[in-house]
């Protein structure tokens, strides 16, 4: 065959080569229908094992749907930013979430999401945050005094009550007391139903969750109507009277759904991070001591934790980042695939489910030195390990849909932590199970049992003996 004939033959083959689709990701769909759902739910190393075998992308079947799992900072950026038009929030989460959390910002897409996010924004940023500090501080001190009187407590449960009181007071305008206690119990039932089988019988976890949702929505409706008649400066009051460029406001049903989401998001993940933070301080006396010294210096100008002071706590900021990295409240996010895409040379079809794993990037050895170790200094200006790769720290999400309440949550976490560091001390009760359980949000299995007491001396007098034990 002449060289010209060979060239022509190759040209004819080009369309065939170009039309050959990329392969599906490696992995296994597992058993019929069930797939690998049971392994996913009960084996905490499920994703890590498959990443070791298949790499940063693999296929499986979860909850009856073919699923692609994406691992690492590059995958986070792909899902959360550069290719987010291939994914749907609404189509990614189980039906239980849609039923229990309603038509809120959490499940909205496109223009509807952008419009409502803009309406919600003023309640979580800028001047609104300034007005939240005093309430956060007074509630924190009220709970701390109660904990000191108790002496020994299970801190996760107590921390959840504190964060719910803060959320319900600042977001809904509720007064702490029997009403917020009842609402907190309803929210506990609602949360327990998010991952439960959708069986509507009243005695099932999901049945109880539906009842709790209805009770919460009924209460919120009454509060919305009060805010419509008499404006207030809590988040719901701001939201009731918030307008877009065309003068449109949220309807009653929209307000109820957004308020329910605000309460849910405003205390669940914050409780997880605060519990992990106080546990980590107790486990690392050297970190605790350095954090206390930072607070001691700030107390020379003001005993109260002010917003201006919170901006002057670089070491506490490093601790919060390290807690977010090592103990993210949720391990990943589900999305529905609404458009075919390719990643790392593999094709993922429309109609699949996608799961990006937060913890994969957070423990990536190419980004973080000795990633299983608690080390706040990795976020110091000198090391700044999270800047080695974009989207390597995504405990609060990332991209255009980063957590709306990020500034609110960080303010609350830092204020509570700073107050406890200044005036209180605690020790972990021995022989408890501190293994972290991920559902519905990350927390120690024991709930974190501690002995809690008021400090008897100024923070500047704290020392450590040769064994690393704190000296009162």
Automatic annotation (TrEMBL):
Xref: InterPro entries: Cyt_P450, Cyt_P450_CS, Cyt_P450_E_grp-IV, Cyt_P450_sf
Key words of the record: Heme, Iron, Metal-binding, Monooxygenase, Oxidoreductase
Q: Which residues form the signal peptide?
A: none
Q: Which SUPFAM superfamilies match?
A: Cytochrome P450
Q: Which regions span the lipid bilayer?
A: none
Q: Which Gene3D superfamilies match?
A: Cytochrome P450
Which family, according to the similarity comment? Answer: Belongs to the cytochrome P450 family.
Name of the protein in question:
Cytochrome P450
Question: From which organism does this entry originate?
Answer: Leptolyngbya subtilissima DQ-A4
């Amino acid at each position: 065959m002449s060289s010209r004939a060979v060239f022509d033959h190759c040209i004819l083959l080009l369309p065939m080569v170009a039309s050959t689709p990329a392969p599906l990701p490696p992995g296994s769909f597992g058993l019929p229908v069930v797939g690998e759902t049971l392994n996913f739910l009960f084996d905490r190393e499920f994703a890590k094992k498959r990443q070791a075998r298949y790499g940063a992308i693999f296929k499986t079947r979860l909850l009856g749907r073919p699923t692609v799992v994406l691992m690492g900072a590059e995958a986070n950026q792909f899902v959360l930013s550069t290719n987010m038009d291939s994914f749907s929030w609404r189509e990614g989460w189980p039906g239980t979430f849609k039923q229990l959390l309603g038509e809120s910002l959490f499940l909205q897409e496109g223009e509807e999401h952008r419009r409502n996010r803009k309406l919600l924004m003023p309640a979580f940023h800028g001047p609104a945050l300034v007005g939240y500090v005093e309430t956060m501080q007074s509630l924190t001190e009220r709970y701390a005094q109660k904990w000191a009187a108790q002496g020994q407590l299970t801190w996760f449960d107590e921390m959840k009550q504190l964060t719910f009181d803060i959320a319900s007071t600042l977001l809904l305008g509720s007064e702490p007391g029997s009403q917020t206690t009842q609402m907190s119990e309803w929210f506990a039932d609602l949360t327990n139903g998010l991952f439960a089988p959708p069986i509507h019988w009243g005695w099932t976890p999901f049945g109880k969750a539906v009842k709790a949702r209805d009770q919460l929505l009924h209460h919120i409706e009454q509060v919305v109507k009060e805010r419509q008649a008499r404006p207030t400066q809590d988040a719901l009051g701001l939201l009731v009277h918030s307008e877009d460029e065309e003068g449109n406001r949220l309807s009653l049903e929209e307000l109820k759904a957004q308020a329910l989401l605000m309460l849910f998001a405003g205390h669940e993940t914050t409780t997880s991070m605060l519990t992990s933070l106080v546990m980590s301080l107790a486990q690392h006396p050297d970190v605790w001591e350095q954090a206390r010294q930072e607070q001691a210096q700030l107390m020379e100008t003001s005993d109260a934790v002010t917003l201006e002071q919170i901006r002057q706590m670089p070491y506490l900021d490093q601790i919060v980042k390290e807690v977010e990295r090592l103990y993210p409240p949720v391990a990943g996010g589900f999305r529905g695939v609404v458009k075919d895409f390719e990643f790392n040379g593999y094709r993922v079809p429309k109609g699949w489910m996608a799961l990006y794993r937060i913890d994969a990037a957070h423990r990536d050895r190419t980004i973080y030195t000795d990633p299983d170790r608690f080390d706040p200094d990795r976020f110091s200006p000198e090391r700044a390990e999270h800047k080695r790769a974009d989207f390597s720290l995504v405990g609060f999400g990332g991209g255009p849909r980063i957590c709306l309440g990020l500034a609110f949550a960080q303010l609350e976490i830092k204020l509570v932590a700073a107050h406890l560091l200044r005036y209180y001390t605690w020790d972990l009760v021995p022989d408890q199970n501190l293994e972290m359980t991920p559902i519905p949000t990350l927390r120690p299995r024991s709930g974190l049992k501690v002995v809690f007491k008021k400090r008897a001396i100024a923070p500047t007098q704290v020392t450590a003996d040769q064994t690393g034990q704190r000296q009162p």
